[in-house]
Structure formats: C-alpha cells, structure tokens
Amino acid sequence: MTSGLELTLLLLGSAVLGVVAFRMLHLPPMLGYLAVGVLIGPNALNLADNGPTTHALAEFGVVFLMFSIGLEFSLGQLKAMRRLVFGLGLAQVGLTIAATIAVSFLTRYLPPALHVGWQAALALGGALAMSSTAIVVKLLTERLELESEHGRRIIGILLFQDLAVVPLLILIPSLAKPAEELAMTLAWAGLKAAAVLALLLFFGQKLMRQWFTVVVKRRSQELFMLNLLLVTLGAAWITEHAGLSMALGAFVAGMLISETQYKHQVEEDIKPFRDVLLGLFFITIGMLLNLQLVLQHWWIVLLLLVVPVLLKFALIALLAKVFGSSDGIAMRTGLGLAQAGEFGFVLLNLASDSKLIDPFVIQLVLASMVLSMLAAPFIIANMDKLAMLVASNEWMLQSLQLTQLASRTMKAQKHVIIAGFGRSGQSLATLLSEEKLPWYALDLDPERVQEARSAGIDVSYGDCTRREALIAAGINRASALVITFADTRLALKVLHLVHELAPELQVIVRAHDDTELDMLKQAGATEVVPEALESSLMLASHALVAMGVPLRRVVHRVQAARDERYASLRGYFHGASDAADDEAAGMHLHSVTLKDDADAVGRRLMELELEGMGAQVTAVRRGATRFAPDAQTELRAGDVVVLRGTGDAVSRAEGRLART
Q1: What phi, psi does 460 have (nearest 5°)?
Q2: Does residue 152 contact residue 332 with C-beta atoms inside 8 Å?
Q3: CA dist., res. 92 & res. 336, Å (int)
Q4: How many separate domains does the chain show?
Q5: Which pLDDT score is estimated for 173?
Q6: What band does 470 get if pLDDT is binned at 50, 70 and 90?
Q7: Which of 111, 141, 221, 526 is the most exposed, having the fewest neighbouring CB atoms within 10 Å of its CB?
Q8: CA distances, 116 to each of 303, 356, 488, 647 (Å)
Q9: Is 50 inside a domain boundary?
Q10: How deeply is 601 buried, as exposed, middle or buried, from its count of CB atoms within 10 A (0-12, 13-18, 19+)?
C-alpha cells in the first residue's frame, strides 16, 4: 500500500515530467497534468489510485481555483460588459443545458447503459457548456487578441460561465434526491445558500477589510500568508457544514477580498498554492479515464467529441451573430470556445460523486472532453484561416480594412508608424504632433480605434505583426517604426518583417527591462528602450536636480548612460523578493569575497578569463576602498569582487574565483 509521502512524491514527480514535456511541445500545462493522470492511474500503469489522500488534494485545488475566480470578480467589469456577460453568456450556457436535456430524451432509444435522465442531462449540459478559461485566455494573450472584437465576446462568455458554476455547484448534488423530494431539496438548498451568502457578504465585507488591516500592520509576510489560508479554508468550511460545496465558500472569500486594497498582493501569494493543487486535481481527473474502455468504444468517444464541439461552435457562432457580430467575428468566437473546460471536470466529478450519471457514460464524456481540450490550441491557432474559409465576406472585410488603411497613408512620406496606440503610443503621437512630424498608428482594440478616429486622430485597426498591414501603413515610405508594446516575442516578429520589407528603416522598440535588449538589437532594432532602466534614469535625474546638481550635467549623465547602452545600469543585486523573477537570462550583480586560499589570489583579472564565461567584473572593494579594476588588476585575499552577468554566467565565474 502506498504511503501518503510516497503518493505525494509520485504525483509531484509525474507532474514535473508531464509539464516539462508539454511545455516543450508548446502546449498548456493543464494537458500535461491530464496526460500524467491517465498514465499513472489505475486503468494504465496503476501506480496510484483515487484514494482519500488524492481526493483531498484535488478538492483543495478546486477550492483555490474558485477562490481565484472570486478574486477576479468585479462588479465594475460586469457592469461594463453586462450585454456580453448576461446576454451572450447567459444564452450560451442556458441553451447548451436545454439542448442537452432535449437530446437526453432520445437516449431512451439507445442501449440501457447509455440512457440519460433529465437530471443527469442537466449536470452534463452544465459540464459541456463550460470552456477552458486557462487555455483560451493564455492563447488569446499570446496572440494579442484579448481586446479584439472576438476576444471581448469570448471573455464575456467565459465570465458568465465562471459565474454559472456557483449555482450549478448547489444544484447538481440536489438533483440526486428522489423526484418527490427534489422540489423541497432545491428550495432548502437555495434557502441555505441565501442565508450563508448573506451572512458572509454582509458581515464578511465589513470584517474583511478591518481584519486584513490589522494583519498587515504586523508587517509579517508569514502572518499574511497564514491569514490568507485561514480565510480561504475557513469560508470553505462554513459552506461545507451548511450542506453546500467548499468551492462556493472559497468563491465568496475571493469576492470579499477583491473589494479590499490587498487584492493584488493576495493574487500573487495564492498563485503557487492554486497552480500546484489545481494541477493535482487535473491529475486525479486523468486517473478516472479508462483507456481500455475508451478504445473498446472509440466510435462513441469520437461521436461525443465531434458532435458537442461542432454543436457548441455552431450555437456560439449563431448567438454571436444574433448579438450583432460579423460572420468572421462570430466564427472566431465559436471556434475559441468550442472545447471543454476545467469547470466541466469539476461539475462532472460532482455529478459522479452524487451518483447522477452512470460511470460508463462518465468515462466516455470524460475522454471526449480531454480530447477536445487537446485540440483547442490547434483550433485557436488556425481560427483565422478557418474563419476565412467559411465566412464568405471575411476576405472582403479584411481587404476593405487594408484598402482603407492604405488610402489614408498613401500620401504620407517620411512618417512614423506607431505600432500600438495604448498610453505610450498616444503620448508619442502627442509629442510628434507638437513637432509637426507626420505619423500613423495601428492598434488591435476596436473600441480605442473608434474613439480615436471619432476625435480625428490618424489610427486604424490593424495588426502590425502582419505583412499586409505594414505594407498598407506605408512601411516603404516611412522614416521610423516605433513598437510601443513591451512584448518581445511579437516585437521580434515585427522586426523580422521589417528586415524583409524595409531593412534600412529605423525601428525603436519598447522592452520591460534589459533582459532581452541584446536579442532585440541583434534582430534589427535601432534602439531599445527598457522602461525599467529609463524610469531609473528619470528618478535619478530628478533627484540630482533636487540636490543642486546643474541641469546641464544631469542631462549629460543621462545621455551618457543611453549612449553606452545602459551598460552601467544593467544588472542588480537580487534579493529574496526577486525570486519569482530570478530568471537565468536576467542580468545579475553578485559579490564574491576571496578567501586566503583561493586560486584567484595573486592573479590578474586577465588571467582568470572571466569574460569568456560571460561575466564582467564591475568593481573591486579592497578594505574601505572601492574601485573599477582593469585587466591588469591583481586580486588579493579579502577582496570583494563584484560580478555582472546572467545567473549561469555569474555562478560559473564565482566558481572560478572561489576555487581553492
């Protein structure tokens, strides 16, 4: 019998290997967890089973997932997107459940094992209505499509799906009661839910802010983390003992904290717990899958994969069309949400525990849901091509957009193309206009473009990572291109296109920090502006002026730092608070003290060949003196050598310096 420690080690080791493998394939980690669960489960290698320990860990994963959803719950966001959320989203979930119940009446003509009652159909419909927030949001973010027209519709529907889970968590366990008790059970569950929610929301909202303020004033990160776990699990315990689900209490706790000023700190602190435990939950879901049964009935699994995905796509696309979308936008919205979702597994698991659905049906539906999620990245990656193939007017609309863009820039000469018209892009446009310099902007947020064009500003809806958009914007006649968004992956794509279309064009790129400065320069960027270093320069310049340093000297120092490509500012001493961002590719500063028996003592820097390892010596402290060394500097015992380089390079250089 496997002990708790052995089981935990097995789950963690398998999860690491699974996530690494799927990351290498550029697939979401969630799919890696599911695959690992299938592999080590009782129906495959039989290394682990869904025992009490595994089940408890999985349940905590759902608790923290619902807590995170509650934390992101915003009345302001709901109000702003109410038509999409409570119109499009409600219609999608409601009609999916209704369609599943309607289909359930046809199962009476199938073999008895496939009979599905209306209660089971309601639970199945709720599970099938869900789409994967984790997969879809990640892929849309990578494609810069969160603010696009179809992106906003997708997010609106996903938001309602997340909210719909709350009543479904209350409803599904009640459906298992006998028919004559069902009405009373639902009424009693609704009454308890209303009472508990009122108690938590009314008293909790007043208490939460005050209590968190008391905890924060103690200035202890450990206490803050303990309090966060107490609040989350305490709320889950209250709802569980009220006969409701633990996940509902966690959702309410997240909602309460979202109204405090500590929301963002809580999000960062809870993320490691949520991701690890949620991963274990997906492993347990994978364990439920019986591969032998699936292979025996592969045609049913294929049917349950293809039919729900196609029907869900058609339903969402039709609803999006009804709500005013063009054919192309409706197609993309449907394709983005056609797959199953993580909350579908939660609801399916709940229906299984409530004995609502036959285990045989659970197996077949579970397999089809896993396969649909595996297919999701490939569908979303190709949804533009699919939309153009099916939507007859999509080519025409895109051609019209490019034609309009080209006609607006046709007379422009020596203009600046601004890629991205967010805050940075708009600030740049204002300064260019004041200098009477021509410019034109491209942006992917239709609402922003509409607002700006209404104000008479030269901006068009266009994707700067597409060759056609850059040509239409007059890249061959432009004097410069400025990439105002700090996304290195997309910036590299734009630089590749510029190299093909206008290799002599000056390209100025915005970056978060100096981590990828050299990569962007090598890809063809004329200048890279790392905002972290630029903000440091601005802080320093204001401080120097405030201390009485002449403005001319301050300007000279700032310009010198820029001329040397921020060399003197690159890298910094990392601390415990930087652990999350401590990537090997980042530039580090690190101090190494030379002991009496170190081989480096008595040797010149040039002899140690540290630069060949990718590290530089920026300073040496000898006693009370700190100086900038040169290649001929001879090191002495007790010297403190300051190294700069990537994490790996600094580690190698430290090894050589400290070697005895």
Answers
A1: -130, 155
A2: no
A3: 13
A4: 4
A5: 81
A6: confident
A7: 111
A8: 16, 9, 51, 58
A9: no
A10: middle
pLDDT band at 649; cut points 50, 70, 90? confident
Q: Which amino acid is at 613?
A: M
Token pair listed for 651: 């580690």
Residues 321, 315: Cα–Cα separation, whole Å: 10
CB 339 within 8 A of CB 368: no
513 and 531 in a single domain? The answer is: no
- pTM here is 0.62
Amino acid at 619: A
**Residue 419's domain is classified under what CATH number?**
3.40.50.720
Q: Say if 394 falls within a structural domain.
A: no
Token pair listed for 628: 């900038």
The domain boundary residue, chosen from 525, 556, 588? 525
What CATH number does residue 262 fall under?
1.20.1530.20
Rounded to an integer, what distance in angstroms lies between the CA atom of residue 60 and that of residue 354? 19
Token pair, residue 83, equals 């038509």
**Could you give the CA distance from residue 419 to residue 508 in angstroms, rounded to a whole number?**
10
Strand partners, 482: 418, 508
Task: Encode pLDDT of 415-447 as tens digits.
Answer: 888 988 888 888 888 888 888 888 888 887 766
Both tokens of residue 515?
């981590």
Q: Which structure tokens are listed for 425?
A: 């892009």
How large is the average pLDDT for residues 237-262?
78
Shared-domain flag, residues 340 and 435: no
- Considering the domain architecture, whether residues 563 and 585 belong to the same structural domain is answered as no
- Tell whether 343 is covered by a domain: yes
CB count within 10 Å of CB 65 equals 26
Residue where a domain terminates, one of 462, 495, 525: 525
Asked whether residue 589 falls in the same domain as residue 635, the answer is yes
Domain with 448 in it: 410-525
Tokens of 494: 């734009």
State the residue for tokens 């058609």: 314
Reading the block at residue 588, the tokens are 């580090």
Contacts of 429 (CB under 8 A, 6+ apart): 418, 421, 439, 441, 457
Same domain, 558 and 578: no
Q: Are 506 and 526 in contact (CB under 8 A)?
A: yes
d(CA 63, CA 245): 9
Asked whether the beta carbons of 122 and 97 are under 8 A apart, the reply is: yes
Average the pLDDT over 47-64 and give the result.
75
Of 328, 10, 346, nearest to 173 by C-alpha is 346
CA gyration radius, the chain: 29
Residue 204 and residue 351 in one domain: yes
Q: How far is CA 624 from CA 102, 503, 589, 597, in A?
A: 83, 52, 20, 22
Name the one residue in this structure whose structure tokens are 């809580």: 266
Whole-angstrom Cα distance, residue 525 to residue 500? Answer: 13
In angstroms, the CA 655 to CA 65 distance is 43
Tell me what pLDDT residue 179 has: 66
For 274, the token pair is 């949520």
The pair phi, psi for residue 83, each rounded to 5°, is: -70, -40
Q: Are residues 197 and 273 in the same domain?
A: yes
pLDDT of residue 578: 52
* Two tokens, residue 222: 């450990």
Q: Specify whether the CB–CB gap between 330 and 394 falls below 8 A.
A: no
Judgement on whether residues 444 and 366 belong to the same structural domain of the protein = no
Report if residue 51 sits inside a domain.
Answer: no
Identity (one letter) of the amino acid at 407?
Answer: S
Angle at CA 69, nearest 5°, toward 63 and 74?
145
Q: How far apart are CA 459 and CA 450, in angstroms?
A: 9
